[in-house]
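Practice problem: predict the structure.
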Amino acid sequence: MIMFWLVAASLTALVLLPLLRALLRPAPPPEGAAGFARSVYAAQVSEIERDTARGILTPDQARAARAEVGRRLLSAADEAEKAAAVRTAGPAARTALLLTLLLPVGALALYLSVGNPTLPGQPFASRPAERPVPPEVLEAVAKLEAALAANPDDAGGWGLLAQTYAAMGRTEEAAQAWRHVSRLAPDDVSVKSTLAEALTLAADGMVGPEAVGLFTQAADADPMDARARYYLGVARLQAGDIRGALDRWTALVADSPADAPWLPTVRDRIASAARTVGLDPAAITPAPRPAASAPQAAGGSGGSAPALSPEQMQAMAGMGEAEQQATINAMVDGLEARLRDEPGDVEGWLRLARAREVQGDLDAARAALRGATRADAANLQAWLDLSRLTAPDDGQTEGGAEFLAAMARVLELSPGNPQALYYLGQQAANQGDTARARDLWNRLLAQIPADAPQRPELQRRLDQLP
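Answer:
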């Protein structure tokens, strides 16, 4: 606390010192300034006369030059009179000096009534967005919400919706969307960490028990999850264990590459906490590891996500609709251009696909998903998203070749996937492979609850097999 007041007093003095010096400095004698001006102009008149005698100036030019010097001389006399008037304005100067001295006193009184130096800072990124969201974004969100209502098992869709909610400042809804992703991908460690962060932001920065549990699971499964390790340190600080927070943060710095984007934030936290317990931040902060050639974001994979961050949403809020859309398109196009040079970034392809789908360009979304499957043929989410975008229209029972190929790959990676069991069973039935159709549909039937409305229809199809 003492350090806070010392810093505040020092800053106040630094701000007031130039002001006081200007107010207290005696004004120069106006007559001296005017005399100097007259001597300068007299020298100019002499120079004009010499130039006229040498033939450099014509008589007309000489008259014009002398007139200009006279004008300047009169102007200098006026300035001298003004300076004299200012110099005699003693009461005004005293009033300005008094106000300057009263400013810090008034500010201190106001701060003591409403301020609190012990309150933690609230990062700008975690504050609710107060500016209007572009209509195009709201329309895309509505479409995505409707699609998820019809297909609630689309983990990728829930993830995109969660990112969009977060960018709009709807932190509680973002946390609920990440819950859906966690339910659909219970073994994905990065989802646990992301859900925990969403819960923390929804709680105004407080790391609650549920978030602590999720961050702990994420850190245990992936010791290099920087996001989880950072927030576990925040949790220790909020619990009053400053030493515990410092231990976690300094260990994170030691394990991070020198160009990791989270290092400035962690170092600031270390410095603040260290001073609280009387430690030298420079003495306890270790050196990071050498810079990585391709740094990654905390708790996530490399690449630039096309979803807007809160800062980007704020920056775009002042633009017109056309500018906003152009900026979003440029971000997505930039991601696509990068992926042409880095085709092995499967997460980048998935983000591109979701961005193109939100833009309504389904052909481009399908192309991006094909890039994801080429980058990692064992990525289940890529095949699920591709099958969703190539699924047969309503009324069709089998689907096209690309859809069936995607379903076959999904079944290899997830043998119990209901959609794959149904459509591949239908394909087998259409091809006359009764044994395979019966096997796939029986496996699907075993998953369907007895009172599910889909069960009678599937049983009818089974009974109709030869």
